[in-house]
Amino acid sequence: MANWTSRAETLRKLKRAAQVQRGNGALLVTICNLRHELETKDNAMRRLELVIQQRNQTIDALHNRIDTLQAQNKRLDEENDRLAEMVRLS
User: Is 90 helix (H, G, I), strand (E, B) or coil?
Assistant: First the structure.
């Protein structure tokens, strides 16, 4: 009878080991899938960061252009006012 209990115990251990091994395999697949998903999202994040950086550079350049044009318009308005005054006085 002791021999039979030993065989039954051995079979239970083997069955449990097989279950654990299947669980490990499933976890490995999950880990691989999650790693791939993380890499994909990381790449997308880097692309978005680059797009944001380029957008910010474009915005800065446009702000500089606006400032330059506003200063030029102010100078032209002042010159226009002086010329109009000269015409009025003549």
Answer: coil
Q: What is the pLDDT of residues 7-47, one digit of tens each?
A: 889 889 999 999 999 999 999 999 999 999 999 999 999 99
Tell whether pTM > 0.85. no
- Sign of the Cα torsion 5, 6, 9, 14 reads negative
Q: What is the rounded distance in angstroms from the CA atom of residue 54 to the CA atom of residue 75?
A: 32
- How far apart, in whole angstroms, are the C-alpha atoms of residue 26 and residue 76? 74
Chain centroid, CA 85 distance in Å: 58
Cα distance between residue 39 and residue 48, in whole Å: 14
